[in-house]
Amino acid sequence: MKGRAIAYSAAEMAWLEANRLLPISDYHRAFVAEFRREVSAQNLHALRKRRGWKTGRTGCFVKGQEPPNKGKPCPPGKGGRHPNAQRTQFKKGARPHTYKGPGHEMIDPKDGYVIMIVAETNPHTGAATRPVHKHRYLWEKAHGPVPDGYCLKCLDGDKANTDPSNWELIPRGVLARLNGGRHKKRLAFDAAHPEIKPVLMTMAKVEHRALELARQRKDAA
Question: Domain range for residue 210?
Answer without folding.
Answer: 134-220
